[in-house]
Design a protein that fits this description.
The protein is of the alpha/beta class. It contains nine helices and eight strands.
Length: 282
Amino acid sequence: MAQKLCVLQSLWAMERRLADEPEWPLQTQLAMIRDAGFDGAGVRFIDPSFASEVTSFLRAHDMIWQAQCYPKSVDDLKPVLELVAKLGADHVNLQPDVRPYRLADCIPLLEGWRRLGEQASVALNIETHRDRMTTDLFFTLQLLDCFPDLRLTADLSHYLVGREFAWPVDETNHAMMHRILDNSWALHGRVASREQVQISFRFPQNQGWLGLFMGWWEYGIRSWRKRAGPDATLTFLCELGPAPYAITGADGRELSDRWQDALVMKDMIRNLWDRIAVEGCD
């Protein structure tokens, strides 16, 4: 076997949130994801009935999923892991829904979550995300000082807009993002600018930001390939969120078609992976 890439689609990103049109039924969303050629989906594991319905479909079509959760305490993770034991998952993607002011307050939580993951033999990643323990880039880098082997999921959009990096991004800021990527075992896909967390990356005026993220994702893939086992799987989740993540016009409609954007992103990442595989990861 060889290392492989699996590109997933976020079910949250399938929400339309239109005042005058209904949401797509869940089974329609899942069929769209399957028919578009995605390898799986990101699934909320805080609702057992929802997770059961989604994973039943995905399993029947030889697709994979990541289990998403948002614990506020160590014990909050236990029912999620019990559900993972029942339904399976490629990995658990944990957004730590706490906002400690001090690093010392984070340590018992991270130690507890990591311990539970190890006891359950489940790969567990901590996602970089605003309004979470990992909201700030500098704070998260200090967490890595405390836990050099901490497994992350890198959603870099939050750090670009959160830190409002000057353009062009300088080597100091690149180095900090690279350190995040060197600890990342999964990637979440969204293109931001220094002012907006999600922009329409196919627009001509946004090509510089797209190039920035493609460069970061290339670094992240190359870093992962060096660290991961010979038959490991890297997941990339296309996560183009609905409004207010998506920018809307005066009529309340989004400025671009997020579903079509996700299809383009899927192909871009697969092409990037293929190029890296041919060139090697050095």
